[in-house]
Amino acid sequence: MGYQHTLDSRVWHFDDLKTLLAKASPYRSGDVLAGVAAESPVERTAARMALAELPLVRFLEEPVIPGEDDEVTRLILESHDARAFAAVAHLTVGDFRDWLLGEAADEATLTAIRPGLTPEMAAAVCKLMRNQDLISVARRCRVVTRFRNTIGLPGTLAMRLQPNHPADDPRGILAGVLDGLMYGCGDAVIGVNPVSDDMTTLKVLLESLAAVIQRFEIPTQACVLAHVTSQIEAINAGLPVDLVFQSIGGTEATNRSFGISLAMLREAREAALSTGRGTLGSNVMYFETGQGSSLSANAHHGVDQQTCEARAYGVARAFEPLICNTVVGFIGPEYLHDGKQIIRAGLEDHFCGKLLGLPIGCDACYTNHAEADADDMDTLMTLLATAGVTFLIGVPGADDVMLGYQSLSFHDALYLREVFGLRRAPEFEAWLERMDLVDSRGRLLPVTSRHPLLAMQA
Amino acid sequence: MNEFTPPAPSPPSQPTVIRDPWIGLRSLTPSRIALGRAGHALPTREVLAADEAHARARSAVHAPLDLDDLSGRLAAITKGTPPVRVCSAAPDRQRYLLRPDLGRRLSAESRSGLAALPLGPEGCDLAIVVADGLSTTAVARHAAPVIEAILAGLPPACRLGPVVIASQARVALGDEVGQLLKARLVAVLIGERPGLSCQESLGIYLTWEPRPGRTDAERNCLSNIHPGGLSPADAATRLWWLAGEARRLCTTGVALKDRSGEPGRLGERRASTPCTIAGGVGGATNER
Questions:
Q1: Residue of B nearest to A29 (CA)
Q2: Beta carbons of B35 and B22 less than 8 angstroms apart
């Protein structure tokens, strides 16, 4: 079915829903590369006007990727809850934006309608929203998850501690872990990206991280971000796996390019639950996503990258993860060219994730061949903190020496805590206080060389 | 001074930068740990150090490659045969970065130039393509020593094609070059995406029977060739091991497991300098 809009007596035609969504997207390099972006600002405006008039129910009638070709579409449609949708079923996309910004959309209502919203509805309304809209609505969404601590409570910001090492050296990784803990980071997860996926490396890293958490009784969880099949193998071998990680995308073909399927994710979740390692809750999964992954795998079906990304959240929420983050500037300038595009995408991803009910965080990051720098990351993290982001990623000095890109530093988290009065996951912050690392307001205390945590390497 | 002038602040009794007592652990990792802090922020020294590293990395991406200098050095190594210069279809750096597809194809002029080269009907066993990729610094510093090491290990029966220098080039440009040179195997030496801590890493991608349309799964990769990583001599040894296996199996890529040294790399979000090419959010992050 085609769509059209008349602007200044010119009729603009859009062949189908995915074309309409793509043409209505803010300008970004990945959609241009895919050949799906609007040809001109006027065409983009016409598409946005046509999209504003589209009834939300249309997304249930016309999947952007046919269900017979794609298990993600089937998951989205089969899990759609018509009763939850009823509250907004009468709205167009434009009315839905107005409704979201109004007083009716309070925390309880936003929670109640989640199962009735599809990723495409979230993506569509996102395209009509300005950055401030993305912030103010996301801020009202509440998602709380638990494993060994509580993530997502009001007034909190968690941090993933990312202590990667270019040779997977466990002592080097523990030096990074120590650095992060001393700076009060690590409540979301202590998560290592391994260089090598082999079982020997996985065993060494999992056991090192588990030993530190156990020895110092840290209320947090560890993760080694190997392929999901390796992590299942590790669980079966009796290795200490807290969270199971996987990169996911918004189409079946993207996931195939990652070597996974929904069935594999179900198997992974069952395996992780079977270990019973979570003390407070059973959110056992950790996902990463990022705009551009479907295009880079040639698996986008002509769907714009932001809609593909929202569909990845449709996958993620089916597995009740502890945390999920967009890796927003990692993939390169051919997908998000500059600071402006990275910042916009970070806010879009956070909004869509929260609206769909995900405990979503962000790896606010950039590569050295993108037109972005640390000032852009300052802007993005400040906006995300304003929007109530669940967690961010911290790397020593913001320099990931293994992955070769810049994320945020542990210092950046201190800045956000000071400016916004944000606390850590309460169990983790209580531990920091017991360890004399922070005061009762969560501010760092001076430490001496005799601090017990410094014996970690011994 | 009158009575309304506030007293001058006294010199601070505390140091302005709070130092981290675990600074001794720096020997265990190249990570920027124990940086200390000024209030909650990075100290000035560390902000400037990161700024300098970023500037070097940006320069590695954007600084033009001195083609005359590289050609001269390569001609000396190859006993006087000047390298052939080609350009991709990306006309400048900006479009190269935004349109990876253009960087994977030859410009029309370069295509006809290569096609007109006087080559024997049997072609060559190995063609070497030096591609600028995402770090011209890496290519300027390490391409010549690596090619010298490769030539030192050249098996007697191996017929080497002309060395090609490709500008605004991605890995897959080697497929078209290799096909036009009638090469059984192409080795693309390419500047890898620069990080803050290493801006001059060179990678080598090997592709059997190169032709447009080859996928990344059909290549083998040696990465991290720089002073802190793989040496030119070790890279050449491993290249010849892989070349021998490629010839024996008549293939490269996932079917050819590199057992010449390093363990395979099949992580998720993987290093900027991957050894095995597969999915993951990071799967598309390299110079390919």
A1: B98
A2: no
User: What would the pLDDT profile of A303-335 be if each residue is shown by its tens digit?
Assistant: 999 999 999 999 999 999 999 999 999 989 999
Identify the structural domains of chain A with CATH numbers, from first to last: 3-140 (1.10.220.70), 145-434 (3.20.20.70)
- The verdict on residue B40 lying in a domain is no
For the stretch B67-99, pLDDT in tens is 999 999 999 998 878 899 999 999 999 999 999
Q: Do B21 and A447 touch (CB under 8 A)?
A: yes
Binned at pLDDT 50, 70 and 90, residue B216 comes out as: confident
Which residues of chain A have a CB within 8 Å of the CB of B285? 330-332, 367, 405
Two structure tokens written together for A389: 């982001």
A173-211 pLDDT per residue, tens: 999 999 999 999 999 999 999 988 789 999 999 999 999
**What integer pLDDT is reported at residue B3 of this predicted model?**
65
Show Cβ contacts of residue B168 under 8 Å, excluding neighbours closer than 6 positions: B87, B88, B90, B91, B92, B93, B96, B102, B103, B132
Q: Which of residues 29-68 of B touch A (CB under 8 A)?
A: 29-35, 37, 40-42, 46, 50-51, 53-54, 57-58, 60-61
Q: Which of A368, A402, A406, A451 to mutate to test the interface with B (most CBs of B within 10 A)?
A: A368
Query: What is the per-residue pLDDT across B190-205, written as a single tens digit (0 to 9) for each?
Result: 999 999 989 999 999 9
B107-124 mean pLDDT: 92
Domain around B214 = 65-257+271-277
User: Given an 8 Å threshold on Cβ–Cβ distance, is B268 in contact with A296?
Assistant: no
Nearest to A397 among B22, B32, B264 (CB): B32
B58 located within any domain:
no
User: What are the tokens at B149?
Assistant: 């090491």
Residues 6+ apart with CB under 8 A from B1: none
Nearest by CB: A334 against B97, B271, B272 = B97
Among candidates B21, B57, B283 on the partner chain, residue whose Cβ is nearest the Cβ of A368: B57
Write out the H or E segment, with its range, that includes residue B85: strand B84-87
Residues of A in Cβ contact (< 8 Å) with B92: none
Q: Which of A98, A85, A184, A132 is nearest to A411 (CA)?
A: A184
Q: Cα-flanking dihedrals φ and ψ of residue B255, to 5°?
A: -80, -10
* CB spacing of B98 vs A259 below 8 angstroms: no
Average pLDDT for residues A160-166, to the nearest whole number? 96
At A345-357, the pLDDT tens digits run: 999 999 999 999 9
> What pTM value is reported for the model?
0.92
Q: Does B134 fall in a domain?
A: yes
Residue at B118 is within a domain:
yes
Q: Of A421, A420, A438, nearest to A429 (Cα)?
A: A438
* Cβ neighbourhood burial of B239 (10 Å; 0-12, 13-18, 19+): buried
Q: Where are the beta strands (DSSP E) in B110-266?
A: 124-131, 164-167, 183-191, 202-208, 219-225
Return the residue of B nearest to A327 by Cα. Answer: B281
- The CATH number of the domain holding residue B176 is 3.40.50.11240
Count of domains forming chain B? 1
